[in-house]
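Annotated sample (chain length 373).
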Amino acid sequence: MNKLAETIKSIIRDKGPITFAEFMDIALYQPELGYYSAERSNIGKEGDFYTSPHVHKAFGAVLANFIAKSSELMENEGFTVVEPGAGKGFLALDILNHLKNNFPELYSQTTYYLIDSNLSSSKDGNHFFQKHSDKVKIFTTLDEILSNGTSGVVLSNELFDALPFHRLKIIDGKLNEIYVTLKDDEFSETTGNPSSNEIVAYFNNIEIRFEEGQEFEINLCVKNFFNTIDAILNEGIILTVDYGYLAQELFDSHRMKGTYKCLYKHTINETPYINIGNQDITAHVDFSNMISIGESLNINSVKYTTQGQFLLDWGILELSEIKSGTNIQSIKNLFLPELMGDKFKVLIQEKNLRHKIDAFYPESPFKISFKVL
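Output written by the structure step:
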């Protein structure tokens, strides 16, 4: 018997149909049982998917170069890197190692905040960062650092795609929400009116004509995230790496079933009601929404590009591993088109740095074409 599935069924029996966002939140984040809460290896060969830091440490090295350049824009003493959704901390470790070896003065002034409930409760947390112990602080949630007020860089890698999202469908020309219910005591889907006015407002702001029967996802967590970042960050850069599109591309009618998918042992399925607690559930990110929410908080966009172009612009070809030919194929996987280079996008935003930002972003002579998938 799947305990987590039974937990969700019990909730539905008690209160009736639940939103897909509520189902997803329990399936992924229920303490001890959820996909991201249980003690298991989700990433890598033995897990369900790979992330860029697991492909090669060059990814963290390039982000460290970006962080070093960003620090030159800050005037306040001390410098902070905040990484929500830090996972096991592999990216943070690569960044800290590169800063220590290549930017020792900045390293001496840097504090690195890792935000992840699993890492904060893990026995491995402090041991993993032993040689950076005076630099690292581990928190369960972003709210725990609200009172500090920081200047620095907030970075996330594949965070937003795993935040609970609502699923919507156009029926008879009207907006409907997809709910999770039970039929013969098995999971089933039904539709009804949107569960909140916030969903309706999001939908109205998209300004895209949806087709009859088209399904799509809306993520309401993004707004709360940016509100918290706005409260934390006095001045700085927000760097988001994830897979997704701008709204015009994301909600195009050729994606009639939306973009959500489930990942289990490196296979993809569209069945969220199996392997509950043992498979990831994810959807593409609406970068237009991030840009719009940011602008409403005076967090302004600097650059939107592919991961591949970002890595080229910030010097991946100058790394010693590239020049020596060490693990070069793994590094290529990070930036080549039709691999991770096109799949992932990068959004850079700034707060209270507009007067300094003009010459901030470098332009590599090597260009990768932007391919819409």
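Annotation: Residues 58-71 form the longest helix (14 residues).
Annotation: The mean pLDDT is 88.
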